Amino acid sequence: MRSFDYSKLANLKIDMEIINYLSKIHEYKGRQDLYIRQKPAELDKLVEIAKIQSTESSNIIEGIFSTSTRIKELVKEKTTPRNRSEKEIVGYKDVLNTIHESHDLIPIEGRYILQLHRDLMKPAGFSYGGSYKNTQNYINETLPDGTQVTRFTPVAPYETASAIDAICESFNREIALEKIDPLILIPCFIIDFLCIHPFNDGNGRMSRLLTLLLLYRSGFVVGKYISIEKQIEKTKEVYYDVLENANQGWHEELNDPTPFIKYMLQMILACYVEFEERVNLNSGISSAKDIVRAYTVNKIGKFTGADVIMNCPTIGRSAILKALKELVEEGSVERYGTGRSTYYVTKR
């Protein structure tokens, strides 16, 4: 089995692109702390939206679906799951809530990772929840003709527990030493976790939950307010490509984590940019109409009522729809379609 020593990352060649990402993210993080102290009421609404989006997107990546309405009700615990997919969605929601509420009390250790996996699988009743894999798994790709090709063979079952313990120990040691930026360490930990592929099922979802946990524990809590999983889902083809590149030569310790590091930094930075846009959109503006107007003025292309509701969380649905109607009547926004097909365009 390969060794795990994250101290070697101190020698990783970091180009100007990575340096710029790191600099910008740390700058945004400093302002994030100020927003959290000054605008708690506005941020509570962002948390609610992010939970729904994170739960929906992370499951979509794995081919687990339900309607947006059902997912919203499941996350808000206003209904019970109807089928296996919805039970798996509830499992993600449960672990996400645990991480949001108790991340500072969840050490990065194998036994806690097992407990999170147990809770992820519990609603669906899977017996293997909370246990490492007991059979060899493979990372396969389905070709256009339907045949499957094995792209990567993860760690064998008998090596899994010790491999997870090793990445946790090395990660914790380097975090404590503070010689390597956590934003470099975290993507490398996730690459190793996915290459170990420790569970019979749920590895992808666990990797995204662990990403949030690791970021939160290092003070980067933007994923609590803006869904990182949503950013990944929107770019999932790139996500899979950089992961596949990152596992080339992994067993021989020859793999290059740089493309995945850059990808994750891009996702985190995009979340910080969106975070400030949403908070600033609702700052210093009194009426619902002015808030909606501020959103529409900066919006290029089509948008729906649901888009406005999601991006203006400090005002209610009825007030937003009334404001949109008023903007249409005054001619600053144009409405097209009817019913569920309705969309809007800002008049330039």
Characterization of this structure:
It is built from 14 helices and 4 strands. With 348 residues, the chain is mainly alpha-helical. The chain has 2 domains: 6-281, Fic-like fold (Orthogonal Bundle), CATH 1.10.3290.10; 288-346, Orthogonal Bundle (Arc Repressor Mutant, subunit A). The chain has a two-stranded antiparallel sheet with strand order 1-2. Strands 3-4 form a two-stranded antiparallel sheet. The termini are far apart.
Q: What number is the mean pLDDT? A: 93
Biggest sheet strand order reads 1-2
Order of helices and strands: HHHHHEEHHHHHHHHHEE
The number of helices is 14
Instruction: Tell me the number of strands.
Output: 4
* Tally of individual domains: 2
Shape: globular
Weakly predicted, low-confidence segments: none
Termini separation comes to 61 Å
Q: Name the structural class.
A: mainly alpha
CATH architecture of the largest domain: Orthogonal Bundle
| Main β sheet profile | 2 strands, antiparallel
Give the CATH H-level superfamily of the largest domain: Fido-like domain
Helical fraction: 55-70%
Stated plainly, the CATH topology of the largest domain is called Fic-like fold
What is the CATH C level class of the largest domain, in words?
Mainly Alpha
Q: Strand content of the residues, in percent?
A: under 5%
Domain Fido: 108-266
Active site: 197
Protein name: Fic family protein
Binding site for ATP: 201-208, 239-240, 247
